[in-house]
Predict the structure of RNA helicase.
Amino acid sequence: PVTRTAEIGASREKLPIVAEEQKIMEAIHNNPCVIVWGTTGSGKTTQVPQFLFEAGYGSHDSSTPGIIGITQPRRVAAVSMAKRVGEELGQYSGKVSYQIRFESTTSKDTAIKFMTDGILLREISQDFALLNYSIIIIDEAHERSVNTDILIGMLSRIVDLRKKMSSEDSEVRPLKLVIMSATLRVSDFLKNSHLFPAALPPLIQAEGRQFPVTTHFARRTERDYLEEAFRKVSRGHRKLPPGGMLVFLTGQNEIKSLLKRLHDTFRSSNRSAVDSMRVQLSASEGPLEVDDLELGTAEDADIEEEDSEDEDSEDEDSEVDFVGHDGEDEDIAFDIGEPVTASLTVHILPLYSQLPTKEQLRVFEIPPDGSRLIVLATNVAETSLTIPGIRYVFDCGRSKERVYDQSTGVQKFEVNWISKASAEQRAGRAGRTGPGHCYRLYSSAVYERDFVEHTGPEILRTPIESLVLQMKTMGLDNVVNFPFPTAPERSSILRAEKLLKNLGALTPTGRVTQLGHRLSIYPLSPRFGKMLAIGAQHDCLPYVIALVSGLAEGDIFVPENQLELNPKERGEDEVYTNDDRLEDSAREQRQKNYNRARAIFSKNDPTSDALKLLSAVCAYAYAQDGDAFCRQMFLRSKALKEVSQLRKQLSDIVRANHPQSIGPYLSRLPTPSPKQLKALNQIVAAGFIDQVAIRADLAPNPPISPRKPQRAIDVPYLALSPSSTNTTSGTTSSDPAIYMHPSSILSPLSPKSLPQYLIYSHLQQSAPSLITSSSSSEKQ
Ligand code: ADP
Ligand code: MG
């Protein structure tokens, strides 16, 4: 039996999950898979592994000798939970280990192993039957990360496999699976007979949060939530009784900036933290994880436009804690006890996933005497973690989320409202070790109106080609029939496989090639990944990076048919002129300027839209005043700013993975040589190898055209591999021919001088007539 300290014993007794021990253990005994639901703080993560340990799991002389494995979505959670469970296990503390990237404390004594889900995925690829384990616990399954979903799918099959193996070989024991969730949104697992064909798993519930948390909504939702966080945390520190603070922000830049301001404002016990703060993993620390990339947002302060004017809303009623209405309401919300004496210093620590794990773990250390711990965190701290002594949570209500643009294949990270479920999780952090308060930096009206109930599974926001490639690199051959908790569309999986084969990332039988492994590192459509992977010839890589950034962004040119519109209507912020209507002469002048700008960008290769784009991206980098340059050259400045960020980030990724292939980042590149231009055209062609069209009159069976085309855009082309072309609308018109888009560099040419082959970036069904479907073309 485990001998626990009196203190631990007493705190365990209060945990709701402990009352359910017998029920949980019986369910695990009688079923191969069990789902455990208990709100945050009910004791799932710390207690369930101990129940299992005490029942003999992980012990050599039992019928369940294999290790107890528990996955966590984040490194810092794996380490800190292993530590806590070790402490609770008294004389058996040496039996608890953790393993994260680059770090492991496992030994032959290990009975309980905490690890990130990435580690378990890798172990599965080495031993698919996971013979070292007797039971796997997937924790925080409600987060629905891609890794968690894939793990659950795989484990449902591994459980079957182990059952079969054990019936054939008495040496092999069956494997158990426990899925743990902090929200009741588990029906994707519970009612999924594809996932659990034999029998649906039972659900065991443990209710009740440990300590009460009082929630305070803001009266107003300020757009500048960082400023608001500074204001409220400062005021809170002055007014609130002792107790740690946990502040939820969206990213490391915000955290850094608030950290600095708080340090500058208050007497700080760890001033050196500001200067010594490590912000980014260096390339030498190993390959970047998707988690570590923040593509698409250079500044965290990129706040979405939102309605922040809800002063007049009916908020007051819902804010029971705000007693007065004389403008001092916030002070009253903070008036919950003896205020702090001015002598209390602050001990401020950052917490975000790019921070080295060792630094992250500092939040668990006891802060210096006479100081208040203030942790500034991303949603790393939203689940799993118990930071001792946290009494106050400040929640900005936003998080940085992965969003994926189907049409360009780019994934970005955007700041958006969190879900109501996340807001509850965040508030719950204030009640882990005592009663607490949660200060929300948004009004209850915004919460009700703009917060969704739950965030959908990440897998549906992930580029499907990247997902397929990732699964294939893990050795999963049959992605289409994989038992996803929430499956992406079958047809899009098949289309992705086909594209990956066309690009040479998969063999015809569906195995990952060397090229496939190389391009799996880029957070981009595999087309662009391939262009980067083969881009190192003739010193082309910096150009390929610039080109891919431009292609990924999409529309950087102001289209000709929008010249007449005023900038607002075009979706631009900058103002060209105050007159909405231009005089004829001015219009003429503008058209002239437009043509001149296009001609300048077309100089390098008058037949390639891709190189025209490259010229524009490269020229922008030379401009002193980017916005003025964009106005003058009819470019969309917002888009080009993003392209510049992407260029820099892609360069960093390439350098981190292949330092020898690329020099230091140069935004201003020299004009490419003719040899390089040729290579660049070939690289584009390789990325779009399945999107080649032949001029219809040269096809083996040319369609009979009623009359001779007068304009380039009327000349029919035929796609060489029609099945792989995905029209935006997904429909196929009766006319198999495709036509050049009027915005193409080739459209002013005479029909006679059009090339025999075209490479196109995408097809677009032109509404409403079926007669003129058109294609935007990237000419080779
Ligand atoms: P769950 O996984 O259900 O959210 P946990 O098992 O992580 O809950 O934690 C249950 C409780 O155990 C916490 O609410 C807290 O009171 C206590 N606890 C967990 N970790 C620590 C720790 N490091 N220090 C102090 N108390 C802790
Ligand atoms: Mg937990």
In short: Residues 230 and 258 are 7 Å apart (CA to CA). Residues 15, 38, 40-47, 84, 210, 386, 388, 432-433 surround adenosine-5'-diphosphate (ligand 1) (CB under 6 Å).
